[in-house]
Design a protein that fits this description.
5-stranded antiparallel beta sheet; homotetramer; alpha+beta; 18 strands
Chain lengths: 367, 367, 367, 367
C-alpha cells in the first residue's frame, strides 16, 4: 500500500501531474460531519502554484470536486473521493528533458524502479501529488475542530537559506498570522530578507531551501504508541514523505545532544489538577506518546532541484550530456507553499492517532 | 498493529523489561536459508548492558532461543519466534519510584494512554524491547549477505555531547573497525574524549547524548516507493521509533538548507556503464527511491532521562514531590549500545523494501 | 481499511449509487503493461443493468474513464484511478421508502452503524459499488494474460431456484460459451427453464436466487498461505463480500462431509513429470495452497431483497408500517449479472496471491 | 502478514507441531482487564488431543504460559505472548512418510510454495497451530464478558457424515450443554449415532467429516463493514482458515436459493422499542452489518486426510509409490475438537469488529 497513509483515517492519493487529474480517497472518515468544500479549497489555494511572485507561475486552478462519501455536505462514513482536474498542462514544456536524467530529481530512480519513465514530466513524483494530502487533511481538520476544538496545528517558515526567523516560542501563532506575508514567516523583518533571498535566487536561475517549524497546540494527551508507531516516528515518516525534505527533529532535536540529562529533562509540576512540564525540551512527546504540551517539529527542505543552469548528466540511453534547461515555470523556493503541506501531514498523523486511541480509552478497565 | 514493523518481512516484538522475557516473531521470512544463532547472539552482545565501563552494570545474559520457524538451523518460511528470558530482574530496584512520574520518562504518558502503570519499572518502554529488533535484523542481515552480498550496513558514534568524530566520508567502514573501542567511534582520538565525557557524566549522576551516523554501502538500486513509503520516510520512522531519538537527517540533512540548488544537486555521470553521481548530497535517495550511492543517515539521541539527581515531579495521585533516586544501574550514555540498534532498524527497512521491489521488478513489462 | 482489498495489488472502491459516480483506485499494479479500456468496458457491460429482459431496466451507460496511472494505455506503476460517472439517477425513485427500513436490506444496519442514513437510496450498499471491482479485476486479468497465459477464470450460473445446470466437470468452459445465453448458464436446456422461472418471479413482483460456480483453470502451483491467508479463506472472504451471497464452498464442499476419508482423498500420480491428482475433491487447494488442479468454487446468492409486494416493517422513527413499493426498476434475479462479479473477485485473489508468491519463490534458497 | 489476523485485536500465531512449541502474540489488547490463565487452559483442554476415545491418542499437555503483556493477571495494553511447549514429540512417528506426499495433505503444496519440506511431520500445517488461536480467543472472550456480557458464542456438532442433529433453533444453547457428551452434539440421540459412526471409521483406519453450527447470541448491533470487510466475509475467511474446512454458510445459506424473495425476506417489527425481525433467514447480518439477531453460521469439515489404508501417491523425487501407513495416532473425526476452534475464530472476528465499531460510534455526529 505504497500510496496509502493512516491506519483508521486512511488516505490514498492518486494522479500524475500531467494526466487528467489528481486526488485522494479517504477511507474510515467518521459519519455525520458537515464538511465545507470552500474550506478545503482555501487550503488548496494556500498550496497552489502561482499565488505570489516567489512561487512558480504555473497557474493551476486546483478546483476541488467531491465524487463520493458526502451527501448535502455531510460525511456518510463511506469513502470520500476528492478530485482536482489538471488544467494548465503544456506537454511541450518537458519535451527537451525527456531523455536526460535531471540531477537530484526522481527521473533516474523512477526508471530504475519501474523499468520505464513517464513521458510527461515529473509524473507521480511531483509536488502536485500533495493536493490529495492537503484536501484529506482539511477534512480531518474540520472534524477535529468539532471533536477536539482546543487543538490547533500551525506551521511557518523558520528559515530560508541562512536567514532565520526569531519567534517567541510562547507566542500564540495562528494560520492567519502566518499568512500575513507571502513567505509565511511570522517574523516580518526576517520575512523581508527571505523574500529578497528567494528573488535573488530566482533571478539567477537558482533555488534555495530552508526549515519549517510546526506546532501542535493543546494536543490530546495520551495519543501515540510505545513501540514502532511512536507519535514522533509516524510524524517523522509523514514529513519525510513530503518532496524535498532532508531531515526532521522534535523538541530540541539535534541540539538536545549538547545538553546533560539534568538540563534536558522536563520536570513535572501541577497546574491546578493538570500535570504540566516546566520546560518542553521533549517537544510534547515522551516514550512515543503525547504528554499534552505543544508538539514541536522542525523539518528541513533542500533547495529545489529544478534550476536553470547548465548541469552535467546522463540520458536513459547511457550517454553523457550537458543539460541546458530553458528558463521555465518552477519554484525558486518551495518553503511558502510547503507550509500547508506540513500542516496537512501533521494533521493526518494527529487525527489518525486520536482515532486509534479512542479504542484504547473506551475499552480499558480502570484498576 | 502498533508493535509490528515491515510489510513483507514483518517483525512483531513483545515483552516487558521485567516480565518473563522479551522476543520477536518474524512473519514473511524467505525459506531455505541457514541462520546462525551464534551470529544473532553476537549482535545481541553488542547491544546488551554491562559490556563495558560506560554502559549500565545491569548484567543480563540475553541468551537467544529459537522457538519456531527453523529446523536444523534452516528457515522454513513459517513465523520465526526468537525469545530471550529475563534473568537479572530485581523487583526492589524500582519500588521507590513507582508512584512518581520520572521526568522525561514514559511513566506519565503510558498511564495517560492505558489507564494504568506497569508496576515493574519501565515495562514496555524499555530499551530492552529492542532485543527483538536486533535479533530479527540479524536474521535479515544473514539472508541479505546471501542475496545482496555487496551491500553492507555500518553505524558508528559520530558525536557525544559536543565532541565530534572526524571521519573521512569515503573511508571503507566496517563493524569490526567500529567495534575497536568501547565507544564505537572509529576516530580513536575523539573516542577517548567521548569516553572521558561519558565517565564524567556518570560520576556526576548525569547523562549525555549524541549522534549516530549510519551508512548503507552499495545498496540495491531502485528500492523505496515514490509517495508515502519513501525510503527515507520509512527509515525516519524506523529510527525515530528507537528510544531516546530526537531527530534524523539524510545526506546533508539540515545543512542542505544552507546551499543553493546549483551547489546541492548531484550531477550524474557514467562510470563505465553504471550511472553514478559526482557528489552524494542527497544521501543516496532521490524521490524516495535509492540511486545506488551510499545511503547516509544521522540520528540524534537525547541524554538518557534516568539521572541520579534530585528532580521536581508529580505522583499518580497528583501530589508534588521531589524525586531523589538512589544511585542505581543505568546507562550514562546510550550511544555505544545504540549502534547495533540503528543498524538493526536500517537493516529491517532496507531488507523489507528490497523484498517489496522484487514484485515490481519481476512483473514489469519492459517497453 | 474497510473499502480496500488485496495486499500487493490493492483495490479501494468508492462511490454511492446515487452520487456523482463510482470507481476504484488500484495501488501496486505492475508497470509497463498495456491495458485496453475497451476490454474493461466489455466486462462492465456484462455486469451492467438493462442488458436483457431478465435484469433491471435501470439503464446506466457505465462508461469507464481512466484518471491516473496510465499513459498512452500503459501502466506506470502508480495508482490507477478508474471512474464511472452516474447518469440514470432519478431521485424520486426512492422518496417513498426513505423512512421505512426495507426488509433484508442494509437500511437498518447502515443506520445502526453510522448514525445516519443516506437519503439517496441504497447508497454504498448497492451492487453498483461492484463496478470498481470488475474494472480493477479486468486490469489484473489483462496482466495475468501476459504473465500466466495458461490460467483462465470462468464462472457460470449453476442453479436458479430449484433448477440445476448439468455441466460436464471436465468441459473446457470459456466466457464466450457462458455468454451465449442471457442467463449465463452453459446448459442450454436448463438456461431456458431458468429464464422462465426468473420471468415468472418478475411478473409476480418477486425474486429468485441461485448458485454460481467458478473455475480457475490451470492456476499457478504453490500460491496461497498456510495459516490465516489460505487461498480458500481469501476466496471465501472475496465472494462473501459480494452483495446477496449467503454461502461458499470449495471442491465437493458440503457434500464432502458425506464421504469417508478414503473416498475423499485425492491420490497423487505422475503425468509425465508433473504431479497430478486422480480426483479433484479438494477443489485444487490443499493446506491453503494451490496444487495446480482446477480451483472449484460454488457461491450461493439469496433471492434479491427488493420485491414489489406488501411487507411489514418499521421506520427510523420507530413506527410500524406496511411497505407497499410501487413496481420499479430492480433485478428479479441477480445471478446473470453476478457472473462477472464472481470472476472479478476470484481474479483479484488469484492475482494478488500470485504476486505475493513471487517474493517467496524469488528469495528462497533451495536446499 | 500471512500469520496475522484482525485489524485492532491482532493475533499472530507461530510454531510448528514438532518444534519447541506453539503460541501467539496478541497486539492491540485493551488494558486493565483481568485474564484467567485457568480459563484459557480450560479452552485449550477442550481443543487438545487425547481427551476421549474418539480423538487422537497423541497426548500433549498443552500447558499455557504467559510470557508478556500481563502483570499480576491484568492486561497491560502491550503485546501478550502466550506459549505452549511441545512435549509429546516422537520424531520416529513420521520417518516413513517423509518423502511421499500424503494424499490431500499439505505436503506437496508446501514444498511447491517454499521449495523445501519440513522434515518433522506436518510442520506448520497442523491443527496444533490452532492452539494460539484458541488461547487468543479466550483472552478476547474474557474481555467481551466484561464489555458486552449479553453476547455469547456457542458452537456444536450439527452433523457427522450423514447423521444430522435435530436442534430447536430457539433453544438457549450453552457451552456447558454442548460439552455434556464427547461428540459435542446437544442432540443426545444423534450424538450416540455419531459416536458409533466415528468409532466404526476409526476401526477401519478411516475418517469421517461433518458440519459445525455456531451461533452468536445477542451480538452488538451495527458491527461489520459494508464493502470488503462485511461481517460474513470476515467470518467466512476466519472459518475457512481452519484446517479441513470446505464450506461455510450464513442463515439459510445454500437453502436460501430455493426460496422466493417474498419468502426469504425478514420482516421488521417492534419489540417494545427495539427493532427485531420476525424470521432470521439472513442469519443476523444484512449488508455486511449485524442487525442484533443471532448470527448463524454453518461450516463443513471434510473427513480427515490421514487414513490407515494403502494409497497411491508420488514422492518428492518424482517416483510413484504406494503409501502404507502403520496405524498411528490421529483423529478419526476432527469435529468434536473443532468446536472450540470454530468458537475461537468467530470470537476473534466479533471482538475485532466490535473494537473497530467503537471508533465509528464514538466519533459520529448525529444529524
Amino acid at each position: 500500500m505504497a500510496s496509502s497513509f493512516g491506519k483508521i483515517f486512511t488516505v490514498t492519493t492518486f494522479g500524475e501531474s500531467h494526466g487528467k487529474g489528481v486526488g485522494v480517497v479517504i477511507d474510515g472518515c467518521p459519519a455525520g460531519h458537515e464538511i465545507s468544500l470552500t474550506i478545503i479549497q482555501s487550503e488548496l489555494n494556500r498550496r497552489k502554484p502561482g499565488q505570489s511572485a516567489i512561487t512558480t507561475s504555473r497557474a493551476e486552478k486546483d478546483q476541488i470536486e467531491c465524487i463520493s462519501g458526502m451527501e448535502n455536505g455531510v460525511t456518510l462514513g463511506s469513502p470520500i473521493c476528492l478530485l482536482v482536474t489538471n488544467s494548465d498542462f503544456k506537454p511541450g514544456d518537458y519535451n527537451d528533458i525527456q531523455d536526460a536524467y535531471r540531477p537530484s530529481h526522481a527521473d533516474f530512480t523512477t526508471e530504475a524502479k519501474y523499468g520505464l519513465r513517464s513521458k510527461s514530466g515529473g509524473g507521480r513524483s511531483s509536488a502536485r501529488e500533495t493536493i490529495g494530502r492537503v484536501a484529506a487533511a482539511s477534512v480531518a481538520q474540520q472534524i477535529m475542530t468539532r471533536l477536539i476544538p482546543e487543538c490547533s496545528i500551525v506551521a511557518y517558515v523558520d528559515s530560508v537559506k541562512n536567514i532565520e526567523a526569531n519567534i517567541d516560542p510562547d507566542a500564540a501563532l495562528t494560520r492567519e498570522l502566518v499568512d500575513q506575508n507571502i513567505v509565511r514567516c511570522p517574523d516580518r523583518e526576517a520575512a523581508k530578507l527571505m523574500e529578497q533571498e528567494i528573488l535573488k535566487a530566482k533571478k539567477n536561475g537558482d533555488t534555495v531551501g530552508g526549515c519549517i517549524r510546526c506546532q501542535v497546540q493543546n494536543p490530546p494527551i495520551g495519543i501515540g504508541e510505545p513501540i514502532f508507531d511512536k507519535l514522533e516516528a509516524d510524524l517523522a515518516k509523514a514529513l519525510m514523505s513530503l518532496p524535498a525534505t532532508k531531515g526532521v527533529e522534535f523538541g530540541l532535536g539535534f541540539s538536545s545532544t549538547q545538553l546533560y540529562g539534568s538540563e534536558h529533562n522536563d520536570a513535572f509540576y501541577l497546574e491546578e489538577d493538570r500535570v504540566r512540564t516546566r520546560s518542553n525540551n521533549s517537544g510534547g512527546i515522551q516514550g512515543g506518546i503525547s504528554n499534552g504540551e505543544s508538539i514541536e517539529i522542525r523539518t528541513a527542505f533542500k533547495p529545489v532541484s529544478t534550476i536553470f543552469k547548465e548541469q552535467e548528466t546522463v540520458t536513459s540511453n547511457n550517454e553523457s550530456v550537458q543539460l541546458k534547461p530553458k528558463a521555465g515555470r518552477h519554484d525558486p523556493c518551495v518553503l511558502p507553499r510547503a507550509v500547508p503541506m506540513v500542516e496537512a501531514m501533521v494533521t493526518l498523523v494527529v487525527f489518525d492517532h486520536y482515532l486509534r486511541q479512542i479504542v484504547f480509552s473506551s475499552t480499558m478497565n480502570h484498576q
